[in-house]
Amino acid sequence: MPIECKDVSFTYAPATAYEIHALKNINLRIEDHEFIGIIGHTGSGKSTLIQHFNALIQPTSGTILYNGEDIWGQNYNRRTLRSEVGLAFQYPEHQLFENDVLSDVCFGPMNQGLTREEAEPEARKALLQVGFKEKNFLKSPFELSGGQKKRAAIAGVLAMNPKILILDEPTAGLDPRGRDNILDQIAELQSVRGITIILVSHSMEDIAKYTRRLIVMNQGEVVYDDAPHEVFSHYEELEKMGLAAPQVTYLMNGLKKRGLPVDLKADTVAEASKSILKALREVDSPLLKEGGSHV
């Protein structure tokens, strides 16, 4: 059990006119090898929460444990924690600063104590794992496209071999193809390395496609923590929080209300297609008789 939050609360500017209760009595357990999504409207507390996971922010009250140890304990090594719990911010390309990409990605492992010769293989492996082309390794980070910068920045975190990788809106500003490409690489990475991935995103479609557990934040509290399809079944409650479900969820609920026996747990296009075809066969739909292979 890598991370556990026990009654964690955090207040910005306490005892002032600007006091904001960003987190309120958060209790969470993040297990090994999970792929978790976190959603919530602006100001819900999700970004504040993830910064607690690697001790960038100290809770106002409560305890955060990593592998059973209090990360704010007197003798706890938070530098080691941050190498094991990597965080890429919403615009990770702003973290790039070296003369070339390879040197930039080497920085983290070298900061852990490796020599350049030892760090370079780790950097190369991380860049390749996020789909960064080798021909661009020696380019200046400032010559790269938006998608390439994001890959390079994420590789910089991966090169330190974290056990947990937290991604705060890693595809912000990318076109749909670039977004899917990066998330596919991250999903492949999670499968190969077995690390825990925590993905903060505003895209319900991405959350439904890639994550296996979904945490919903609202006004500093955890409102839902369940499988994505279970959370999205509460789409009316999500709308009241300024959120939504994937478009597929609305489609499937609409079909169900019209009497088609579709699976409401289907929250991706692929799952919905299979369910709709199966339902049409069950009701002996004339659509199938008229060329159902194209439905």
Topology summary:
Elements: E1 3-12, E2 20-30, E3 35-39, H1 46-53, E4 61-66, E5 69-70, H2 78-84, E6 85-88, H3 101-111, H4 116-129, H5 146-158, E7 164-168, H6 176-193, E8 196-200, H7 204-210, E9 213-218, E10 221-226, H8 228-232, H9 235-240, H10 247-257, H11 269-282, H12 286-289
Parallel strand pairs: 3-8, 3-9, 6-7, 7-8
Antiparallel strand pairs: 1-2, 1-4, 4-5, 9-10
Description:
- The protein has helices spanning 46-53, 78-84, 101-111, 116-129, 146-158, 176-193, 204-210, 228-232, 235-240, 247-257, 269-282, 286-289; strands spanning 3-12, 20-30, 35-39, 61-66, 69-70, 85-88, 164-168, 196-200, 213-218, 221-226.
- The chain folds into 2 domains: 3-245, P-loop containing nucleotide triphosphate hydrolases (Rossmann fold), CATH 3.40.50; 250-294, no CATH class.
- The chain contains 12 helices and 10 strands.
- Helix 3 (101-111) crosses helix 4.
- The strands form 2 sheets. Strands 6-7-8-3-9-10 form a 6-stranded mixed beta sheet, sandwiched between helices.
- The protein is of the alpha/beta class.
- It is globular and about 65 Å long.
